[in-house]
Design goal:
alpha+beta; four-stranded mixed sheet; 4 strands; 17% strand; 37% helix
Length: 224
């Protein structure tokens, strides 16, 4: 694996919310060693890694209520290469404070507003909790990030879902986003979280990658 010292791996799981994960983590109910297996993900040597102190990062949820908390993330050390790796729950997105369900929920609001002839990004911002400080520009960034994730995963996702309606020539558009979500049976004004989490879980299990966002090891290093 290439990149810096920190490596983020997806922790695929069946928790319904990030808060369920937090509760189980703090109660020491998650067997991360069984999840990872005996082989170190970094050096591929058996028994090389060990668990070290967790780190904490913020998670913000918007639906069904606005909540922002610091969440513990399991962290491990490869003894051979002295690199750390962490298991980031699929409910979260690397380097994004808002949960995956919060991001997609806002984008679904934007699509719903657009279908009603309104300005989607502005309309979505007017329908979320005012303390979340979401702006139309941020929603536009989220839309591009989600579409980039779908585009990277297009080949793998097409093995399970019919993506024939997605026009790759008009990729960065509301229509492309809408057609992707239709293919995953996720629609505006529906209870979308279970379908989203199932999609994230299947993809991360099959690919060992994140559907959305760019983890530490794939980010461009800062120049000194």
């Amino acid at each position: 694996m290439q990149g810096g010292r920190k490596i983020q791996l997806p922790y695929h799981n069946n928790f319904k919310t990030i808060w369920e994960y937090e509760k189980s983590f703090l109660a020491d109910e998650i067997d991360f060693l069984t999840v990872i297996g005996p082989t170190c993900p970094i050096c591929a040597e058996p028994g090389c890694y060990r668990q070290i102190t967790a780190y904490w990062r913020y998670a913000t949820e918007l639906f069904a209520e606005f909540e922002k908390k610091r969440i513990p993330i399991a962290r491990f050390l490869c003894r051979r290469h002295k690199k750390t790796f962490s298991l980031l729950p699929i409910q979260l997105i690397p380097y994004f404070q808002y949960t995956a369900s919060a991001v997609l929920g806002v984008l679904l609001l934007a699509l719903s507003c657009r279908q009603k002839g309104q300005r989607g990004f502005f309309g979505a911002c007017s329908r979320v909790h005012p303390d979340c400080l979401i702006t139309p520009w941020l929603v536009a960034c989220w839309s591009a990030m989600v579409l980039c994730g779908f585009r990277r995963a297009h080949s793998l996702l097409s093995r399970v879902h019919d993506l024939s309606r997605v026009s790759l020539s008009k990729f960065f558009s509301a229509d492309a986003l809408y057609n992707y979500l239709l293919a995953f049976d996720i629609k505006p004004d529906m209870v979308y979280r279970p379908k989203l989490l199932a999609l994230l879980d299947r993809y991360s299990y099959a690919s060992q990658q994140f559907l959305f966002g760019i983890p530490s090891q794939l980010r461009t290093p800062l120049r000194q």
